[in-house]
Amino acid sequence: MTTPCLPARTGHQALAFTPPPGSCDAHAHVFGPYDRFPLDDERSYTPPPYPAETFIAHLDELGLARGVLVTGSASGTANDIVLDALARYPQRLRGVIVPRLDMDDAELDRCAAAGVRGVRANLYRLEGKAVYRNGVGLDVLQALAPRLAARGWHAQIWVHAPDLPELMPALKALKLPLVIDHMGRMSTRRGVDDPGFQFLCRQLADGALWAKISGADRNTSGGPPYHDVDPFAQAILRANSEQVVWGTDWPHINYYQPAQVPDDGALCNLLARWASPEVRQRVLVDNPARLYGFTA
Predict the structure, then answer these.
(1) Cα 243 from Cα 239, distance rounded (Å)
(2) Does residue 217 carry a catalytic annotation?
């Protein structure tokens, strides 16, 4: 059993801009209620319950129309909680699930009909060691890739950018759209000139992958207001703002000190520093609509 995480903040910093209609929080998780959706025994963290309706309230509070739910690693390969949320809010939500080798075509079709648009692999390592328990690796993606491609799904890759140059040939061989989580999970201590991060930007510029400019609170070395993250997000946007999406990573699991838990308004306001209104329209509305299949 792990130590329970702190809950997400209530309330938020006033927004510095009005999110355009159709704006999307493209990375969040839901958990619980635990009598229906228990956590995996082999997990790295224990979050408070945050069912679908609390995520909808989070979107409403920030003035966001849409959201993308990603199966959290604490849920293992149990995707029922995401599928339940998609069924309850089909116009507003899409999903990214953790796949299993034994998923047959009927199950994949049910997930697609529910609003699933991708699968997530956990390749995140530091000094060669896995950071979080659970998730699936490249072997599962390789086995399922043709069937995922047939459904128009993408592969969301949780990876440290310095590992990307070695992994990219195998990732490209999947022949799936690739989405890199949390700016390549780059600690700002490594600097924007880190070869792995520069590789990520070049691949993005070439159209070989997408990136999420989420995770400022995870990547920062100095904490709020996250000025040390600015060069990384801005480099990603300069590389190719047509293949970038943004998310809060709500409800901010795996934090145990109150000062660590980010303010979602502050995270949203980073976009006012990072992007012009035209680019914000792309990142918040147009790009997620294409990637996740949202319709008016």
Answers:
(1) 9
(2) no
